[in-house]
Structure formats: C-alpha cells, structure tokens
Amino acid sequence: MKLMTSLCVLFVALALVLSSAALADPPKPPAVSTFVPVDSLADQVEDYIKDLEEAVESKDEYKDSKEKLSKNSNTLIVIALALGLSDKENGYKASAAGIVQAAQKLAATKDYDAAKSAVDGVKAAIKAKAGGADNLKWEKVASLHELMEAVPTINTKLKGALKKEKRFPKKAEKAAGQAAVLAVIAQGSMPHSGDTKKPEEAAKWYKFCAEMRDAAAELSAACVKKDHAAAEAAMEKLGETCHTCHEVFHPEEK
Question: Which of 116, 135, 154 is the last residue of a domain?
Fold first, then answer.
C-alpha cells in the first residue's frame, strides 16, 4: 500500500513537472531590428500581396493555388506582426494590426468568393493605417502547420539565389528579405510549443526556434552585405538547425 502511494505521488509530481515545462512561457523576444533588416522584410509584403492576388485571379487559379494561398496568408500574418512590433519605423507599422486581422480572415477562407473578398480586405488594411500596433505581441496568431509548410518553399528560393556566386549580388537584396521571413517565421512559431507533437519539450522547442531565427538573421545580414561566403555559411547553419529540430519533433522524417 505504501509502495502504491509513493508511486502515485511520484507520477503526480512527474506530471506536474511535465505540465509546467509544457506551459512555460517562451523567452522574451529580442527587438525585431536585431534579427531582421526591417526594410528587407517590408519589401516582402508587396511580393506576398502579388502572390495572393494571382491566387484569386480566377476560380481555376484559386483551385490550383489553395495550398499556396494558405501558406502565404499565414506567412503574411507573422511578417505583419514583426513589422508592427518593430522598434524601427517602416511603411507598414501603422497598418500592421489591420493586416494581421485581414490576413487571418483570408487564412480561414474555404472558397473562392470568400478568398477573393479577403484578399481585397488585406489590400484595404494596408491602405487604412488603422493603428492598434500597441496591442500586438508575439503570440499564436497563425497556423504552425502552414508556417512550417512555407519554410521549404522559401528555403528553395534561397538555395537558388546562392547557387551561382557571380549572380548572387543581383539576387542578394531579394534573398535578404526571404531570409528575414524565415527569421520571423521562427520567432512567430515560438509560442506554439503546445501545438507540437511533444509539448512537454517546450524548452527544446524554444531553443530550436531561437537557433533557426538567429541563423536566418545571419543569412539575411550576409545577403544585405552581398557576402556570398558568409551567406553560404549561414545557410548551412540554418539547415543544421532545421535538422536538429526535426530529430526531436519529427524523427519520422529522418
């Protein structure tokens, strides 16, 4: 009887420890300008809006682009969040809160008409400059699944930019923005520890997200400087952070 009681106490204590780890708050986020070149990130907004517009040009295009639209709208959410929280002024700071809300509405759409209307809503939010950035914070605002699905697409674009050193200077500016997007995806994913397959590993999740963010930040900075060697080194580091994270949270993908 005493043994059973002791085991029960042990199991309860262990459950409390695991629960506490899973519920632990993410570390305090750094200033946005310390991990992304804000101007490069802001330049990405126009590209994402263009992709969203193309996805709803027609019903046939929407049918073919539904998955891409979902990834892009969720990615735009964290881009806008970062620009709204930025400690550096940018052209989207005043409208960021409205863009976040409009992009969330777009991400939730299920049919062509709703998606087309929601894309118009995102464009209107950019122009509105409705304010409200004071209420923004790094919290769960987008789908973790869709953010993770966006990473390989961006990664492929970056590999293309780095493939030929002679052409890199012409592609570096765009690549800086794409790497900045990966950095904000990493930071925006941090509050989602409870949505992973191993919520009890929250501390590791925070660590991996921070490592991905910082590696992407290094890559973005190298691209701004058009330093191909530094960009390649940062790209390799970025790949290692993804691999290490997958070993814990997606070992089946090894």
Answer: 135
Tokens for 243?
């691999």
Same structural domain for residues 91 and 147? no
- Please say whether the beta carbons of 86 and 33 come within 8 A: yes
Task: Looking at the structure, tell me whether residues 145 and 200 fall in a common domain.
Answer: yes
The answer to whether residues 92 and 42 touch, using CB atoms and an 8 Å cutoff, is yes
110 & 209 share domain: no
CA atoms within 13 A on the CB side of 64: 7
The span from the CA of 43 to the CA of 56, in Å, is 22
Per-residue pLDDT tens over the stretch 53-109: 999 999 999 999 999 999 999 999 999 999 999 999 999 999 999 999 999 999 999
pTM: 0.89
Residue range of the domain that includes 170: 139-253
Query: Residue 138 and residue 97: Cα distance in Å, rounded?
Result: 12
Contact 115, 84 (CB under 8 A): no
> Do the Cβ atoms of 62 and 56 come closer than 8 Å?
yes
Residue 81 and residue 118 in one domain: yes
Domain count for the chain: 2
pLDDT (mean) for 6-30 = 57
Number of Cβ atoms within 10 Å of the Cβ of 14: 10
Domain finish residue from 135, 158, 183:
135
Query: Which of 62, 50, 75 minimizes the C-alpha distance to 109?
Result: 62
Q: Determine the Cα–Cα distance for residues 176 and 171; give it in Å rounded to an integer.
A: 9
